[in-house]
Design goal:
Blueprint: E1 3-8, H1 15-28, E2 32-38, H2 52-61, E3 66-70, H3 72-75, H4 79-92, E4 97-102, H5 108-119, H6 121-132, H7 138-150, H8 162-176, E5 182-187, H9 206-214, H10 228-241, H11 247-266, H12 276-286, H13 290-297, H14 304-316, E6 331-337, H15 338-347, E7 355-356, H16 365-380, H17 388-391, E8 395-397
Parallel strand pairs: 1-2, 1-4, 2-3, 4-5, 6-7, 6-8
Antiparallel strand pairs: 3-6
Helix pairs in contact: 2-10, 4-8, 5-8, 6-7, 11-12, 12-13
């Protein structure tokens, strides 16, 4: 059997994701689609809209054959580390290719850009440092340096677009690790990464869908953008937890943690740098809701995403001392269908990492952080049992992928 890998968050799984899964299988000629999915906290520094088990089942009902979890240390990292962790896991699972959605829609510009930056690494790094010293954010400095190198040239990927940025880092990570996986991309259609909802179409961004829910629209009102299985699973989660999850819901516990720790202790958490702990502490003293809080902290230098990653680490207790540049240590199995199970059985001798199906088997620091982050997420959303991380087995859906 041949597998293609995809990197996902499914926050939540919508019609655009269904299109991606089907196109990935068609473009790659693979028998199974393997998804490496972020757990309870996501790359933009946000808690997941619904828990990882709900999102795993959405994926399996939507055509994915095998779902594994991207460890917290990678799932909440900047794009390059996020990509490195995900690509390493897909490679370990012996995927023949990986396929990502992009605004570009063609793979050649990604390869061209990688070759250009590899050939001009010193000049690129110097341009980045020069731009950072002007006080702009690091992502803006990266883009300015890239634009300087590609000015007037054609055939390179547009790295101002969010999915292109992630796609570039996937290709870069595969190249750096000398992976044999073949990179593939499909065109992102209809809705952009942050686009608000457009009525009269069937595909919307996950951001637009989440925002509409938080603004009071019902699942039924948004059913045009979601597969039927996603609708049913979201209704179940909403009923069980009396709502969906965002920073507004977690803010009381986050605020308590910030005020309890104080500025000096806040400085020890991952990504908290340059004295911003004082601003975070002062904002928590004043702001009664999350949006008021974030508006007091974000700036030209500190983007919302960067601040949210800091807050995620404060919330979960992930400190600078815990930071690792290591490799994924295990494959945490979240769910599979019959084809996914058969693929795992066929490849088990070739997989170099332990395949973990029970949280109790996560012994190292990386795995313990996954457990801790999940427990804090469950506590914050008022889950009936904090043992859910230990008692939930991998989800199994009989039969093959959706067609």
């Amino acid at each position: 059997m041949k597998a293609t890998g995809i990197v996902v968050e499914y926050n939540p799984f919508h019609n655009g994701h269904f299109h991606h899964v089907n196109q990935a299988k068609q473009l790659s000629g693979a028998d199974v689609v393997v998804a490496v999915m972020s757990g309870q906290f996501l790359q933009r520094g946000e808690p997941a809209f619904a828990d990882k088990w709900t999102r795993t089942e959405m994926a399996l009902r939507g055509g994915v054959d095998l779902v594994i979890e991207l460890p917290y240390v990678f799932a909440t990292a900047q794009a390059s580390e996020f990509a490195r962790g995900a690509i390493t896991l897909l490679d370990a699972l012996q995927c023949e290719s990986f396929c990502f959605g992009s605004e570009q829609g063609e793979i050649e510009p990604f390869v061209n850009s990688l070759e250009l930056l590899e050939a001009n690494r010193q000049a690129y790094d110097r341009l980045i440092q020069e731009r950072v010293q002007t006080g702009i954010s690091y992502p803006k400095a990266l883009n300015d340096a890239y634009l300087s190198l590609t000015h007037g040239l054609e055939g390179f990927v547009d790295l101002t677009m969010p999915n292109n940025i992630l796609g570039y880092h996937y290709v870069e990570a595969a190249h750096a690790s000398k992976s044999a996986m073949r990179p593939l991309t499909i065109q992102r259609i209809v809705a952009g990464f942050h686009d608000p909802l457009q009525r009269g179409v069937s595909i919307a961004s996950a951001t637009g869908i989440r925002n509409a829910f938080f603004e009071g629209e019902s699942i039924e009102q948004l059913s045009a953008y979601l597969p039927q299985a996603s609708i049913q699973l979201l209704e179940r989660f909403h009923a069980e937890q009396n709502g969906f999850v965002g920073w507004e819901q977690l803010y009381p516990l986050l605020r308590f943690t910030i005020l309890r720790e104080g500025p000096t202790a806040l400085a020890r958490f991952a990504d908290v740098t340059e004295g911003i702990e004082n601003l975070i502490y002062d904002a928590a003293k004043q702001a009664g809701d999350f949006e008021s809080f974030i508006s007091r902290v974000k700036s030209k230098r500190y983007t919302r995403t960067r601040i949210q990653r800091m807050l995620t680490h404060i919330f979960t207790g992930y400190t600078k001392q815990s930071l690792t540049n290591g490799q994924p240590e295990y494959i945490r199995l979240l769910g599979m269908n019959k084809a996914g199970r058969n693929y795992l059985h066929e490849q088990k001798k070739a997989i170099p990492l332990p395949v973990i199906s029970r949280a109790a088997d996560l012994k190292g620091a990386m795995g313990q952080l996954d457990i801790q982050a999940s427990a804090l997420y469950l506590q914050a959303i008022g889950a009936s049992s904090l043992k859910k991380e230990y008692t939930t087995p991998p989800i199994y859906i009989g039969g093959n992928s959706a067609k």
